[in-house]
Amino acid sequence: xxxxxxxxxxxxxxxxxxxxxxxxxxxxxxxxxxxxxxxxxxxxxxxxxxxxxxxxxxxxxxxxxxxxxxxxxxxxxxxxxxxxxxxxxxxxxxxxxxxxxxxxxxxxxxxxxxxxxxxxxxxxxxxxxxxxxxxxxxxxxxxxxxxxxxxxxxxxxxxxxxxxxxxxxxxxxxxxxxxxxxxxxxxxxxxxxxxxxxxxxxxxxxxxxxxxxxxxxxxxxxxxxxxxxxxxxxxxxxxxxxxxxxxxxxxxxxxxxxxxxxxxxxxxxxxxxxxxxxxxxxxxxxxxxxxxxxxxxxxxxxxxxxxxxxxxxxxxxxxxxxxxxxxxxxxxxxxxxxxxxxxxxxxxxxxxxxxxxxxxxxxxxxxxxxxxxxxxxxxxxxxxxxxxxxxxxxxxxxxxxxxxxxxxxxxxxxxxxxxxxxxxxxxxxxxxxxxxxxxxxxxxxxxxxxxxxxxxxxxxxxxxxxxxxxxxxxxxxxxxxxxxxxxxxxxxxxxxxxxxxxxxxxxxxxxxxxxxxxxxxxxxxxxxxxxxxxxxxxxxxxxxxxxxxxxxxxxxxxxxxxxxxxxxxxxxxxxxxxxxxxxxxxxxxxxxxxxxxxxxxxxxxxxxxxxxxxxxxxxxxxxxxxxxxxxxxxxxxxxxxxxxxxxxxxxxxxxxxxxxxxxxxxxxxxxxxxxx
Length: 676
Ligand code: ADP
Ligand code: MG
Known about the structure:
Layout: H1 15-23, H2 29-33, E1 39-42, E2 57-72, E3 77-85, E4 88-95, H3 100-103, E5 109-119, E6 122-131, E7 144-147, H4 156-169, H5 179-184, H6 190-198, H7 203-231, H8 245-253, H9 260-273, E8 280-285, H10 291-304, E9 308-312, H11 316-332, E10 339-342, H12 348-359, E11 365-368, E12 382-387, H13 395-403, E13 409-414, H14 420-426, E14 431-435, E15 446-451, H15 455-467, E16 471-475, H16 483-501, E17 507-510, H17 516-527, E18 533-536, E19 549-554, H18 562-569, E20 580-585, H19 590-601, H20 605-615, H21 641-656, H22 661-664
Parallel strand pairs: 4-6, 8-13, 8-14, 9-11, 9-12, 10-11, 12-13, 15-20, 16-18, 16-19, 17-18, 19-20
Antiparallel strand pairs: 1-7, 2-3, 2-5, 3-4, 5-6
The structure holds adenosine-5'-diphosphate and magnesium ion.
């Protein structure tokens, strides 16, 4: 068996299962072994019953106490048991497993592992895994069981079995890294790393395996970037332009004064565009720092100088929002520049019309999604390309975009702040500008971390804000297993909320499964203030700007990464009104509260992400979506900053010594980007 072997050659994988695997992007055995778990179940030491915490998966060991009982309806039989240890008694229930009454009739000591939930009758452990007699748990203790991202119909066990077979039958002895590097950085061998990432015996093995894979991924990425840089050593500026007088006038007439930071960055951009070499610049600025207006100035300036300028956004909702606000700016201020929108969901006819306007040069400012870099688009004289929320795109997409013109100026914007040292490695070929100041009229957002008991109060508060003319967002948690469940979740929530808030309050909802036209209509209603509450999945996370919205309520916030919560929070506090962010947590666990409290203490995106990592263990390492910064398969820029620096040093060495190994380097393949 070799890596290119199709997975249907594996035992137990028929046509149907093969299709399911293909759905998650696994076609060959090689794909399969690189389909890393997204989390692990850690079989921890049993906890005393007095220490159990709602919302957590825990293990307890105790004596079976009293009789095992079966109640409920014939369709949903509930088996109840009590276990007792020195510190207390715990009620345990199972659904649809009446036979347990016989299995457990013998009494004695049992170990149970399951989620602790709060039910009408009090705290219970629900549907736990059973280790009976208790000694059976010893074999599992401290092991990590992989959890894979799945698709409907494909069980975790099926993935485990397939991966095991693949690992057993493949020859993994070939080492990809030069041994000098492996020794210098103490990296695990390829063989060990692959087994260790899928089936780690313990946390130590897991970390050792993971570090190696992260290193390799970073190294390949850095080498790919260096190659790009080689070819594009600052080209001559073919699109020389001074700042047009109308741009200066526009800045004067804006309803707000640009912050010092915005002015500084705009000067840097203007200087680049009139210099001898072409611009290649990254603008970093935290959420709400006002990056868009700086981009608008650059677009406008290119257009007024007679060139075309294009801006690409990662989602259709955001692209359209940019298109509308920019078009409105131009209309309101009498700027004679034609704009056009181009997105994937437009009809063929609409697209054709956009292509024509772009090709003949009528449209000077072009805004859209990935559709902007498709083959069908031919620009007339593209002099500037801007990518908004760059961290959602891959480097290759940025390159393709730049290749669309002759050698246009390139500006990329990102809301994910990273320290300069890391930015230089990741964006090696770009100059860096930072908008490190928020507009002066902003009031700091008021935050609170609460449990679900506070929900009614939160709704009441939202009603009051709505009565004052404001609007609210509610974020429902993502459902990892399936997009349709997630959609259902949002829809149900919105219906219940409508009921709760009563007459006169318009509640809309938004999720990834909706048609683009529907999403657009709903975003429109919200920004036109025709709806008061928007219940949504994280689709609204990126870039959306509705300054009148003042409340952000995030359900199950314990399931999100802090960096992501910070982005979500950034959707409010964008105008002059006091804004509020309510982090609702379904878990009463102390660590959860401690983690969420970080958001109370700081507004610094990088600090937030670093603290987040410090507080979490490998059990939930992948369980929560991390920074979403660039599209790495296993590496995370925040978490693995140290390894990133090592890989950078290694890349220097390989290039300097012109190492043999560079010739063997496989073509770097960027994971496909996250598109919502
Ligand atoms: P982000 O940096 O997150 O992309 P935006 O560019 O969307 O932020 O700006 C957030 C909001 O702040 C917008 O409504 C914008 O009009 C407003 N804004 C931008 N610059 C200023 C400023 N200097 N003073 C006041 N408001 C501003
Ligand atoms: Mg933005």
